[in-house]
Amino acid sequence: MKTKFLIVLVALLVSISSIANNEDVWGPTGHRATGKIAEKHLTKKARKKIEKLLQGESLAFVSTYADEIKSDRKKYGKFYTWHYVNMPLDARYEDTEKNPKGDMITGIEQCVKVLKDENSSIEDKRFYLKMLVHLVGDLHQPMHVGQKEDLGGNKIQVQWHGKGSNLHRVWDEDLINKWDMSYVELADNARDLSKEQIKVIQKGTVVDWLHDTHKITKEVYKSAEVGENLRYRYSYVYFPVVREQLQKGGLRLAKLLNEIFC
């Protein structure tokens, strides 16, 4: 009885810590893998312009910037709501009540707008490019399109190989970290796709991509019970989904950047 109590307490503390520290994103490895995959699919023209704008830094390197600036809530707090979209499982984005502070879709749209504007300063373009790289990554993390009442799974406490976690954290970091692969290894081992397959993935709008992710969100919510100990079987079933989402994010990011920097 005492052991069970301690397990529940640890899970609760981990969940509270995650929410308090805003750790509600793809982990650094996932974001960097998405950036690395995108780099492989840039046109020469886009790559050259991006390298100049980022002063030599890679998309993988800047992919975590939007998380790093969260610590300065006074200066960058207005961008916090850009990391997610809250919507019911049976809803479509177009029909939902929008966050007046903005969300992931409006954030991506603003980034694209600034980057396409010839009158934008170099500093603004650099900032919003870094934000865009991150937000497109977030768009492909299923729990970033989760329900408001459980904070995208942050309140759904589970165990990960016997240790306290929550459903959001499992999809942010636990699934990726368990495989112990670097972002380069993840990117280099992305599935080989034909040109036609890539076109199919890149087809559509940002909102279409959100709905594509939301299909997985629905499955994730059904994938675990509160307090369940998720182990090797869960990784076996869902790590391939994570890898696919990282690849989709990279390919779609490349499409946006190629269009912006054409």
TrEMBL record:
Q: Which UniProt keywords apply?
A: Disulfide bond, Endonuclease, Glycoprotein, Hydrolase, Metal-binding, Nuclease, Signal
Residues of the signal peptide: 1-20
- GO terms, molecular function: endonuclease activity; hydrolase activity, acting on ester bonds; metal ion binding; nucleic acid binding
Keyword Membrane belongs to the record: no
Q: List the GO biological process terms.
A: DNA catabolic process
Q: Which Pfam families match?
A: S1-P1_nuclease (PF02265)
Which PANTHER family has this protein been placed in?
ENDONUCLEASE 4
Protein name per its UniProtKB record: S1/P1 Nuclease
Q: Give the organism the record lists.
A: Tenacibaculum singaporense
